[in-house]
Write the structure tokens for this entry.
Amino acid sequence: MRKSHPVRRAVLATAATVSGIVLLLTLKPGSDQGSADAAGGAVPPAAAQSPQGGTQAIANGTVTGDAADTQYGAVQVRLTVSGGKITKAEAVQSPKGGQSDQINANAVPKLNQAAVAAQSGEIDAVSGATYTSAGYKKSLQSALDKAKAAGAAENGNGQGGAGSAQALGDGTVTGDAADTQYGAVQVRLTVSGGKITKAEAVQSPKGGQSDQINANAVPKLNQAAVAAQSGEIDAVSGATYTSAGYKKSLQSALDKAKAAGAAEAAESGGGSAADASAGSGSAGSGQDGAGGNAPAALKDGAVTGDAVQTEYGAVQVRITVEGGKITKAEAVQAPKGGQSDRVTNQSVPRLNQAVVKTGGADIDAVSGATYTSAGYKKSLQSALDQAGG
């Protein structure tokens, strides 16, 4: 028996070797990536990605996606597009407070980089930031959809990817109020010749340190908006919340101005707002450089703006319009009592005169009457909106 063992071992070894060779031969074709690619077996995912249609169809400029709500707060993404490619992605909103600050300080920059690298909404979630990642991707896709729609519109209209300022409609436009941890920020733009000529914060956080912070920050943000001719402005150091709210409201105002510009172009067959107003024979068309400012569209009569609450009382403005121009402005409500009487008696007549002189809401605040001036201007804008309907 012992003499037969070597033979049996040799037979078994030979059988095992043959089986191994057969197995290798059968597995090789399937494991050869080059063969699979040539046959088309593993190509579809890569081939589907190769055209990268998302980048080719998007319009140049800035676009902000819809805010995506998450369990810990909203996420909102803004894209900057140049040459048909995403050159910058940023989260203008992300969850705040507690652990969210630490999580998003790590996650958001990675998501921003991923969006630019992918040139699409197909980005991976950041480990440990599941909710922020999901919200980011949703808002990112919304921004891409808007940019694609704008690109299609530009192609249809024969526009060569005009920048944001070139598509703005002349006149004044007020962005949506953006809430911050310390109060709302709201931006109003004045546009002339398709360019931003003035930016101002009609609302900003008030009280305590906010007064000092915003006295420094808001003028810088206003100047930056005019210089950039877009929503791409840097935050002011030490005014993070005000800067974030300002940029959000600024972008809202720009979006409205672009929509107005598109409407003007459609109405006039591509002509300027000034051409359209001159051709309409309206009383306001004779104003030098007014082309599309609010007064040119005002309806005759008296109209009262909304009452605006301030820290010292409500302010409400009524304007009288004749021949398409403001002939009278008055405050039907203003803060009363104590020092407010003296402040109001000094500031309101000046504000009234400024409205009649400028013919719109582009008036300066009266020194020493910050709250009254802000409330006055907001109510005035409400009256102008009603009269311009």
